[in-house]
Specification:
Elements lengths: L6 E6 L2 E6 L3 H26 L4 H13 L7 H29 L2 H4 L1 H20 L12 H27 L2 E3 L2
Antiparallel strand pairs: 1-2, 2-3
């Protein structure tokens, strides 16, 4: 049984609902892994739909650190891009985990707050992180913006929030 300090109890119309705190391993490792996998697959699908080599997507991620040279690095830079991508996914899940410890509503309402978190991650990465990397600038594309926003809402934020919520194991109590 989880100690009371690790639980949050909420009064609802059906009685009291007790939520344990999300487990870090479920939220960070599993949530980050699934979000990273879904997001990288989304990028690969977009690149293939544009008639580009999917390896270029992973090299694009590596170009954040290596600059344009990443595109001539073959599978090595694609592997580095993959590692960077999953590192970012795990850090993103860790941020959600820590935020949900302060704001339990994040894991209690994952269908609402997961997508909101994912959209926030997209805008943070796009406008606060990427400008400080060596990634080559791209012209604006409404289609890529919409894919980025929707993709991060449904493929990044939502899975992380669902893993956090599922690991909290709500338990009903009669009043």
């Amino acid at each position: 049984m989880t100690p009371p300090s690790q639980q949050t109890t909420v009064r609802t119309s059906q009685g009291l609902t007790s939520f344990e705190r999300p487990r870090a391993i479920d939220t960070i490792v599993y949530g980050g892994l699934v979000a990273g996998l879904l997001d990288v697959l989304d990028g690969v699908v977009i690149f293939v739909a544009q008639g580009r080599d999917p390896i270029t997507w992973l090299q694009y991620i590596a170009s954040g650190a290596l600059g344009p040279e990443a595109f001539s690095g073959g599978y090595g830079t694609a592997a580095l891009g993959t590692a960077f991508h999953f590192l970012i996914a795990f850090v993103t899940a860790a941020v959600f985990y820590e935020a949900s410890r302060l704001l339990p509503v994040l894991y209690k309402r994952p269908a609402v707050w997961g997508p909101v978190f994912g959209v926030a991650v997209y805008f943070f990465m796009t406008y606060a992180v990427l400008p400080f990397t060596a990634i080559p600038t791209r012209p604006f594309s409404l289609a890529l913006l919409l894919n980025g926003v929707l993709g991060h809402a449904l493929l990044v934020g939502l899975p992380i929030a669902l893993f956090a919520s599922n690991s909290a194991h709500p338990r009903r109590k009669a009043i």
